[in-house]
Design a protein that fits this description.
This protein is mostly helical and 118 residues long. The chain folds into two domains: 49 residues; 62 residues. The chain is 81% helix and 0% strand. It has three helices and no strands. It starts with a helix and ends in a 5-residue tail after the last helix. The mean pLDDT is 83.
Length: 118
Protein backbone atom coordinates (compact mmCIF):
# COMPACT_ATOMS: atom_id res chain seq x y z
CA UNK A 1 0.00 0.00 0.00
CA UNK A 2 1.23 3.50 -0.88
CA UNK A 3 1.57 6.27 1.66
CA UNK A 4 -0.64 8.59 -0.32
CA UNK A 5 -3.38 6.03 -0.22
CA UNK A 6 -3.94 6.40 3.49
CA UNK A 7 -2.41 9.84 4.23
CA UNK A 8 -3.85 13.11 3.07
CA UNK A 9 -7.15 14.37 1.84
CA UNK A 10 -8.68 11.53 -0.01
CA UNK A 11 -7.20 8.58 -1.66
CA UNK A 12 -5.94 10.11 -4.90
CA UNK A 13 -2.31 10.15 -6.05
CA UNK A 14 -0.55 13.54 -6.11
CA UNK A 15 -1.01 15.48 -9.36
CA UNK A 16 2.51 16.60 -10.09
CA UNK A 17 5.13 14.51 -8.42
CA UNK A 18 8.46 16.30 -7.93
CA UNK A 19 11.25 14.40 -9.63
CA UNK A 20 14.77 15.25 -10.68
CA UNK A 21 13.64 15.29 -14.28
CA UNK A 22 10.87 17.81 -13.59
CA UNK A 23 13.23 19.99 -11.53
CA UNK A 24 15.75 19.98 -14.39
CA UNK A 25 13.02 20.96 -16.87
CA UNK A 26 11.94 23.81 -14.59
CA UNK A 27 15.54 25.00 -14.33
CA UNK A 28 15.97 24.93 -18.12
CA UNK A 29 12.69 26.85 -18.61
CA UNK A 30 13.79 29.45 -16.07
CA UNK A 31 17.11 29.96 -17.92
CA UNK A 32 15.31 30.32 -21.25
CA UNK A 33 12.84 32.80 -19.78
CA UNK A 34 15.61 34.88 -18.22
CA UNK A 35 17.49 34.94 -21.56
CA UNK A 36 14.33 36.05 -23.36
CA UNK A 37 13.71 38.70 -20.69
CA UNK A 38 17.25 40.05 -21.07
CA UNK A 39 16.80 40.39 -24.82
CA UNK A 40 13.46 42.10 -24.35
CA UNK A 41 14.77 44.42 -21.63
CA UNK A 42 17.71 45.36 -23.86
CA UNK A 43 15.29 46.55 -26.56
CA UNK A 44 12.84 48.35 -24.28
CA UNK A 45 14.91 51.52 -23.79
CA UNK A 46 15.28 51.79 -27.56
CA UNK A 47 11.57 51.37 -28.12
CA UNK A 48 10.18 53.41 -25.25
CA UNK A 49 13.18 55.54 -24.32
CA UNK A 50 13.47 59.30 -24.50
CA UNK A 51 15.76 60.00 -27.42
CA UNK A 52 16.49 63.54 -26.20
CA UNK A 53 17.82 62.17 -22.93
CA UNK A 54 20.05 59.73 -24.83
CA UNK A 55 21.33 62.56 -27.05
CA UNK A 56 22.08 64.65 -23.97
CA UNK A 57 24.00 61.77 -22.40
CA UNK A 58 26.02 61.29 -25.59
CA UNK A 59 26.79 65.03 -25.72
CA UNK A 60 27.97 64.93 -22.12
CA UNK A 61 30.23 61.95 -22.84
CA UNK A 62 31.63 63.69 -25.93
CA UNK A 63 32.37 66.83 -23.94
CA UNK A 64 34.09 64.79 -21.23
CA UNK A 65 36.31 63.19 -23.87
CA UNK A 66 37.17 66.59 -25.31
CA UNK A 67 38.09 67.86 -21.85
CA UNK A 68 40.34 64.84 -21.30
CA UNK A 69 42.05 65.44 -24.64
CA UNK A 70 42.63 69.10 -23.78
CA UNK A 71 44.06 68.13 -20.40
CA UNK A 72 46.46 65.72 -22.11
CA UNK A 73 47.58 68.46 -24.52
CA UNK A 74 48.15 70.85 -21.61
CA UNK A 75 50.19 68.21 -19.79
CA UNK A 76 52.32 67.65 -22.89
CA UNK A 77 52.92 71.39 -23.26
CA UNK A 78 53.80 71.71 -19.58
CA UNK A 79 56.15 68.77 -19.85
CA UNK A 80 57.88 70.29 -22.88
CA UNK A 81 58.13 73.69 -21.14
CA UNK A 82 59.56 72.03 -18.06
CA UNK A 83 62.03 70.11 -20.20
CA UNK A 84 63.07 73.32 -21.97
CA UNK A 85 63.51 75.13 -18.65
CA UNK A 86 65.57 72.30 -17.16
CA UNK A 87 67.78 72.06 -20.25
CA UNK A 88 68.28 75.86 -20.24
CA UNK A 89 69.31 75.76 -16.58
CA UNK A 90 71.68 72.87 -17.23
CA UNK A 91 73.22 74.68 -20.20
CA UNK A 92 73.71 77.85 -18.18
CA UNK A 93 75.34 75.79 -15.42
CA UNK A 94 77.69 74.17 -17.93
CA UNK A 95 78.51 77.57 -19.48
CA UNK A 96 79.22 79.03 -16.03
CA UNK A 97 81.51 76.09 -15.19
CA UNK A 98 83.37 76.58 -18.49
CA UNK A 99 83.81 80.30 -17.79
CA UNK A 100 85.11 79.54 -14.30
CA UNK A 101 87.60 77.06 -15.76
CA UNK A 102 88.77 79.66 -18.28
CA UNK A 103 89.15 82.30 -15.57
CA UNK A 104 91.04 79.87 -13.37
CA UNK A 105 93.28 78.86 -16.27
CA UNK A 106 93.85 82.53 -17.11
CA UNK A 107 94.69 83.32 -13.49
CA UNK A 108 97.09 80.37 -13.39
CA UNK A 109 98.80 81.49 -16.61
CA UNK A 110 99.14 85.05 -15.44
CA UNK A 111 100.44 83.85 -12.10
CA UNK A 112 103.10 81.71 -13.73
CA UNK A 113 104.18 84.44 -16.12
CA UNK A 114 105.11 86.89 -13.39
CA UNK A 115 108.58 87.12 -12.20
CA UNK A 116 109.19 86.68 -8.55
CA UNK A 117 110.48 89.45 -6.47
CA UNK A 118 112.86 88.48 -3.79
Amino acid sequence: MRAWEFIGEGNQPPGNPITLRSLNKLKIRARQKSAEDQQRFALMPLIYGNSEHIKDQLDIQRQKLEIQQLEMQIRKEQDSETYDAISAMAKSGIDAADENKKKLAGMAKSGLGRSRKL
